[in-house]
Amino acid sequence: MEGVVIPEPLTLYTADDVRIDAGHLRGAGELCFVLAHGFTCSWRQPALRRIAGVLNQYGGVLGLDFRGHGKSDGHSTVGDREVLDIEAAVMAARRRGYRRIAVAGFSMGGAVAVRHAALHGGVDAVVSISAPARWYYRGTVSMRRVHWVIERRVGRLAVRLARGTRIAPNGWDPVPEAPYEVVGRIAPVPLLIVHGDADSFFPLEHGQQLYGAARDPRELWIEPAFGHAEMAATPDLVKRIGAWASTAVAATRPESAHQ
């Protein structure tokens, strides 16, 4: 979403009646990417707009702000009810005539993409980039800081003031299924897992755990010197992801993932 290309503004509503801010770039053909950002990010940020601009070479792009982020309403549940946000975006893409939907998610958005495809279906390809395989991981300094933000009142206030992200204060009850627990349900929809060997949030074991729990058709790309999520994604990596998704959905029947 860069240069002179201006996205179509969208207002979506989830099954639990949360208003979601989104934007759509029309693409040629039948493929649309639903672009799912990471924690504290937004589809309107320059990094996400650059990614959307590259993916737009391969199809339409529908970017959304998860609940509690950006201009969307509600509070972030950090990967739980966000599956409803993706479902609203997938339905919006279908209403615009796209026959193939690829959900591409970064970090938290990658975990939500996995959980959505496993629990709701209705998509034709899934790309999970820099995603956690399991919850409550505190093995890196970066993730210890994230947990402080989520779990402490002062942390939630700080991220609201600094990033505009509103986090639900009461935590999870019950705890949602972790991505590795449900990723096996995505098959036969094609799944691509992308993880960097320089990720300062989630080490390679997370990508490997997701891949190990998934079923074919699946691929694992271990990217040398790649850091974390959308802020580290290069145009070359995004182009390869776009090309992979185009090939993956072309190899499946249009109705295979959403009968």
UniProtKB/TrEMBL annotation:
The keyword Amino-acid biosynthesis does not apply. Residues 34-159 form the Serine aminopeptidase S33 domain. Signal peptide: none annotated. The keyword Hydrolase applies. SUPFAM superfamilies: alpha/beta-Hydrolases. GO terms for molecular function: hydrolase activity. This is Alpha/beta fold hydrolase.
